[in-house]
Amino acid sequence: MAKHGALLFSYAFSIILLLTVSLPSEAADQEERKTYIIYLGSLPKDELFSPLSHHIGILERVTESSSASNLLVRSYKKSFNGFAAKLTDREGETLAKMKEVVSVFPSKTYKLQTTRSWEFLGFNDKHKRNPTVESNDINAKKT
């Protein structure tokens, strides 16, 4: 019976030791992450260039997380070369110091101010308007 008690104590101690050792690494992953926009300049002319692979590669070099692709919010690849990612402040600072990075800045969420822009700007009904380019539905998709 004493052997079973010692064995049980040994298992419990081992589990507590494992949890204690793994907590600091999880604490780094739990540090507050914010969305940052990373601008890398113009797109390379190389046809074989893959912006998504390049962006994930950069993230893998600076993140302390096990899966950099899970931190990628958006990969911009049409008009400019850049991406948005969830980063800690330290990771954002590290990215900003990289040679290939032009700028890093926190993403801002803007609050909608109006859905009636014409009136908001102070125009009245006497001003000439072009209804073909106006839309009352701010969520309308252009085809």
From TrEMBL:
InterPro entries named in the record: S8pro/Inhibitor_I9 (IPR010259), S8pro/Inhibitor_I9_sf (IPR037045)
Domain Inhibitor I9: 35-113
Coiled coil residues, start to end: none
Name of this protein: Inhibitor I9 domain-containing protein
Organism: Malus domestica (Apple)
Keywords (A to Z) from UniProt: Hydrolase, Protease, Serine protease, Signal
Protein family: Belongs to the peptidase S8 family.
Signal peptide annotation: 1-27
Keyword Protein biosynthesis included in the entry's annotation: no
A GO term, aspect molecular function: serine-type peptidase activity
Keyword Lipid metabolism: no
GO biological process: proteolysis
